[in-house]
């Protein structure tokens, strides 16, 4: 019997050891499964965060690129608009220069001189003319009642007349140059060549 008891005892120990081993395998498998789920969850969370970060970086990069392209486009539009405006006003200046060679211009010059003389009311003044209109100085001075002095002014490139009355502290400017420049301001404000 002792052999039988020993065998039973050994069988019981083996059985108990086998049960413990099976239980441990089950716990290890369960632990492995839990850790695997935790690792997968962490990896999923980390990958979502990484994707979100990369998307944010890409979005910022694209926004900067778009802003740069818009700025570049606006610069090109501004340059084209300025070139168009310059061309239009260069052509206008040429047409006005052609106009200064007509009898209508000479009559307009006289009319402007009469209006300025009336404004100054016979007070002494200095009238300014373009160099190409210097030959008309005596005739225009006479319209001021002989109280005016005449000088050429290199800033008057196209034509017209400008006068200064020191007693009144007034400058009357009827030059085509000034009128054309005033039209440039109006044109820029109203031509709808806006740069967005």
Description:
The protein is α+β, with helices and mostly antiparallel strands. It has a domain at 93-190: hypothetical protein PF0899 fold (2-Layer Sandwich), CATH 3.30.2320.30. Helices cover 70% and strands 11% of the residues. The chain is built from four helices and four strands, in the order ααβαβββα. The protein has a four-stranded mixed beta sheet with strand order 2-1-3-4. β3 (160-165) and β4 (170-175) form a beta hairpin. α1 (2-99) packs antiparallel against α4 (176-190). The model has no long low-confidence stretch (mean pLDDT 85).
What's this model, at a glance?
By secondary structure, this protein is an alpha+beta fold.
List strands and helices in order, with pairings.
Layout: H1 2-99, H2 103-120, E1 125-129, H3 137-142, E2 148-152, E3 160-165, E4 170-175, H4 176-190
Parallel strand pairs: 1-2
Antiparallel strand pairs: 1-3, 3-4
Helix pairs in contact: 1-4
The CATH class label of the domain at 93-190 is: Alpha Beta
What is the tally of beta strands? 4
Strand order of the largest sheet: 2-1-3-4
Nearest-integer average pLDDT: 85
Class per helix and strand makeup: alpha+beta
How do the helices and strands follow one another from N- to C-terminus? HHEHEEEH
Unreliable residue runs: none
Q: From the coordinates shown, what is the CATH architecture of the domain at 93-190?
A: 2-Layer Sandwich
- The proportion of residues forming helix, as a percent range, comes to 55-70%
CATH H level, superfamily name of the domain at 93-190? ATP synthase, E subunit, C-terminal
Shape: rod-shaped
What fraction strand?
5-15%
Q: Mind summarizing the main beta sheet?
A: 4 strands, mixed
CATH topology of the domain at 93-190: hypothetical protein PF0899 fold
What is the distance, rounded to the nearest whole angstrom, between the alpha carbons of the first and last residues? 107 Å
Rg of Cα set: 48 Å
Total number of helices = 4
